[in-house]
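Changelog-adjacent note: as of this version, every example in the card shows the full chain rather than a window. The one below runs 787 residues end to end.
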Amino acid sequence: MSKETKHFYEFGPFRIDPDKRLLLRDNRSVPLQPKAFETLLVLVEHSETVVLKDDLMKSVWPDTFVEESNLAQNIFVLRKTLGDAAGEHRYIVTVPGRGYRFTERVRLVPDEDDIVVQSRSITRVLIDEQSEEKSSPHTAWRWAGLVGALIAVLGGTWYWWSHRGPKLTGKDTIVLADFSNHTGDPVFDDTLRTALSVALAQSPFLNVLSDHKVGAVLRMMTRAPDTTLTADVALEVGQRAGSKAYIAGSISRLGNQYVLSLEAVNCQNGDTVVQEQVTAATKEKVLDALGDAAARLRSKLGESLATVQKFDAPLAKVTTPSLEALKAYSLSWKFLYLQDPVAALPYSQRAIDLDPGFAMAYEQMGITYFGLNEVERASEAFTKAFQLRDRASEWEKLEIDADYYGYATGELDRAVQALQVEIEIYHTRQYNMLVDLYSRLGQYEKSSEAARTMIQLDPNNTFGYVNLASHGLALQRPDQAQQAIEQAHARKLDDYLLHEYLYTLAFIRMDSARMAEQQRWFAVQPVYENYGLALAADTEAYAGHLNKAGELARRAVISAMRADNKEDAAIYEANGALEEAAYGNASKAKQLAAEALGLARAGRGVEAEAALAFAMSGETAQAESLVQDLNKRFPRDTQIQSLWLPGIRAQLELNKKNPPAALSILQAALPVEFANIPFGNNTSCLYHTYLRGEAYLAARQGAAAAAEFQKIIDHSGIVWNCWTGALAHLGMARANALQPKTLRGADADAANVRALATYKEFLTLWKDADPGIPILKQAKTEYEKLQ
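Full-length structure tokens:
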């Protein structure tokens, strides 16, 4: 007595019944020849995509050779039947030299009368059965009950159809509720919601409210961010967020089979908008069934058939066929959402152990490591994800591409291109990474614009404020940085980077009390304690307190190792090596550089800093060996090729007393001179700018050297408390001391006064520096000779 509800293709005032091969208008049949109908059906099924002429002819005339004029005649008939005026082409557009495209949005809708027809069939069966039975009280009651049930079905059907919500648009958001697991099998907990999220994320039409936005709304509701999104909670979240609907799912056991249900509910009135129910024959088929249901739901919610077909890869392919692996993956995302990346990592690893081909598990691991500043581990994970990218959906492939080019090969321009394609198709995703890439190209205005877009799309996205604060510093706009941090804290958002920026603002403003306040925050954060210690070490080195700096750096290394962050530990060692080399302690510099490489040789940041430290301390052979290795391993990395290798090679030329060659090599750094370096605490130490100043000093070009050192002084929001910021004052003094030798009379006297003043500035800055520092001794000697 029951049958599956059939569906129509619907566009404008027309409907197509594929079963009866009828074109309907206002439920009345529209005459159409069979071949013309088949042509229309192919175009509709591939709406909004170009159907090539050859493909269309093969579909309509599969076993017959016909002239192209037959197809053109069918198109003419269809346009006329659909009511197009001459030359209007409202529904079917000709793509010259290629084929045709059906431009009207097509919807797949259930037959509104079908349930009524089925109900009438049930009624007829009941009447027939009643006529064959003798009337009795039991029969009467049975009949009354069945009629009542039928009325309820019809009434419910009418109510549902009369209360359907409007179709969604691409601007509407939807909330994804948690799955209700009625099977008793814990493997489905969290797992199916993650799988459904992946399925819906394939759609460039649907706009699922992000976990960050959901968490912000839950906080407004005075609920924990990991509150289970039951139907009632999802409804309230949707209402507060202004979402159009929420989608709830459930899974139940029926013998050996599994029944999955999806329901989209109007957030304004609680009415069901659309429903889908599917059955999986076995546990292993659950993901396939869920993917099918999600695709049908997307169509019912208003997405075109063309995009559903184009962006609908099977769930088991774009995630994993292993439910256990998917569960581990889901738990990892949960800990990332709760801002506990260290706890997330073991679950990512378990997902990979259970399914070594799980592309997005590697992608997730890369994101986690990158958030922990483990750049090289992140690079390895992103590379593996890229190798497995065929096991990902279309939007996931774009994300994998962007991370691979951005953080594995370092091809920043290609990473930006991948993100721009993703944003064009999926509209609101991945602005955070675009912000980061622009900053790594030194394009802070573009980066700020993308950060502001992030905040407009999601006012509770912490990273929008984090990046605006960073850019405020980099662009020498401390008030903008302060305002961004205050806006984040006003929304009860926080991140360790905001505390780094507060520390930096206090350092620039010489506010020791506020610097100490931020150090107290870092001291009670086991994962981030090492960042605070490293900041303090750099501040001591900036003031010439090398002994204190060394002790704090050692504590930072131990803290980082305790947090399983070997790469940052090695960076702290390499940074110490550069400080020692710059201050004239060559032997200590070589020792620290070697120790850094022993901690994390594979890291490009560690290797680059160690190579520069070796070059600055005169260890030419070791530096050249590392240059060859970096060039071989990272031939396309924007920053390695434009910043680090030119800087190291320039220092090696300075060691050979060849400043013109050094200056020529350093030209490569100019296009990305102020770029954000993705390792270390500060934005950039501007090593290449400092080296260019040193090269001009060696070439006896005082004015040019002064200009380079002034750049560093003028960009304290980029340099922060790096040693280059301190030694730039000495560089200015030395540059000013060169100029009187090229001048005469009063001009020479004025230049000499400037030189004495700038030497005094540096010596005042280092008034209580460790007395045995070689470069300090040299500065005092130079100052005395000028007097």
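Structural remarks: The chain has 37 helices and 13 strands.
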